[in-house]
Amino acid sequence: MLSLKGEHIYLRGLEPEDLDFLYKLENDPEIWEISGTTSPYSKHVLKLYLDNVHKDIYEVKQLRLCICNLKGTVLGLIDLFDFDPKNLRVGMGIIVSSKGDRNKGIGAEAIDILSKYTFSVLGMRQIYANVLEDNAPSIHLFSKLGFEKVGIKRDWIYSGGTFKNEILFQKIYS
Asked: Where is the N-acetyltransferase domain (predicted)?
């Protein structure tokens, strides 16, 4: 099976001891815009979520993995969502939690590792990503990794009293 380890990072499943990290990340209003969150999560709700993350992607249609440096420190999360085995497609999202860890290749390596896993192990034909049009670092990241801009969802996200466009990126396995 394909390893989920790269040169500088590895991806692993969520563990019960990730509760505090998850609590801090999910309750950060700065990322609510991209995560679709509208209110804080309690530790109790997140603990219940962690109690069920062992379920198979074919059952729950999603997979959330921790991005860790080689020392084991959790740097962020990467997700597969809207898993559609009939049409062989899945969505991907990523967050590197600390601004100091961004733009250092962590996200690129995580996306590359998970993309290879998605195509070779899960047998998907395509991965898509939704990126707000004002998120220049993510636009650059997905473009650099071979994701093609295939459309714009106009006025898709309402945030801060205004509507924002969302770009649809797609990578098709050939």
From this structure: 9-170
Q: Contact 18/50 with Cβ under 8 angstroms? A: yes
Domains for the chain: give ranges and CATH numbers: 9-132 (3.40.630.30)
**Stated pTM of the model:** 0.91
Total Cβ atoms within 10 A of residue 174:
5
Q: pLDDT (tens digit, 9 = 90+) per residue, 17-72?
A: 998 888 888 888 777 777 777 778 888 888 888 887 888 999 999 999 999 999 99
Q: If phi over 0 gives left and psi between -120 and 50 gives alpha, with beta otherwise, what is residue 72?
A: left
Nearest-CA neighbor of 77 among 12, 157, 138?
Answer: 12
Which are the contacts of 136, defined by CB distance < 8 A and separation ≥ 6?
none
In this structure, is the dihedral angle defined by the CA atoms of residues 147, 148, 150 and 152, taken in order, positive or negative?
positive
